[in-house]
Amino acid sequence: MRMAAQGTGRASPRPPGESVTVADLLVVEDDRDIAEALSDLLVSLGHQVRVAHDGKEGLQRVEERFPDLVLLDVEMPVLGGPEMAQRLIAHNQGREKIPLLLLSAVMDLHLVAERVGTPYYLSKPYELDHLLAVLDRALEERSPPRPSP
Fold first, then answer.
1. Rounded CA gap, 95 and 72, in Å?
2. How far apart are CA 53 and CA 140, in angstroms?
3. CA end-to-end span of the chain, whole Å?
């Protein structure tokens, strides 16, 4: 199943027996349909999910409670994903250790991920099984961002 860039795809939970680490997740996505569909999917898998619709709001949500992982769009109004990531890292008060999963339709997303310093990224639209695989990997490894100089 593809999660469409317009957020029209709805997904059902994984089949019984497949393991997943339950986590506190923050979805930062300006497209409200995508944010809602992604949040619904993640909640159906047992995760706690909070949503922000731009990087500035995302930073506020992080201040309220550090998430286990941030699922972060790249191009957003007010404050984009890479800028939010830079601010998380710059404060150096624990926020810099929060893993980031970039989800975006931008060209050369791998270069944006490299600049941000995250090994976790997925181009929109993405297949549900790819999203779940990258999410599981990110939650298992929990590698914090290490921006390139």
1. 14
2. 26
3. 37
Where is 121: in which H helix or E strand?
strand 120-123
Q: Residue 147: left if φ>0, alpha if ψ -120 to 50, beta else—which one? A: beta
User: pLDDT tens digits for the chain (149 residues)?
Assistant: 445 433 333 334 444 335 457 899 999 999 999 999 999 999 999 999 999 999 999 999 999 999 999 999 999 999 999 999 999 988 767 888 999 999 999 999 999 999 999 999 999 999 999 999 999 999 999 999 998 77
Cβ neighbors of 5 (< 8 A, separation 6 or more) are: 31, 34, 105, 124, 125
The domain ranges of the chain are 22-141
Q: Encode pLDDT of 2-31 as tens digits.
A: 454 333 333 344 443 354 578 999 999 999
The pTM is what? 0.85
Domain 22-141 matching CATH 3.40.50.2300: the answer reads yes
> Tokens standing for 23?
């986590």
Q: For 7-121, where are the alpha helices, taking DSSP H only?
A: 32-44, 55-64, 81-91, 109-116
Question: Residue 122's beta-bridge partner residues?
Answer: 103
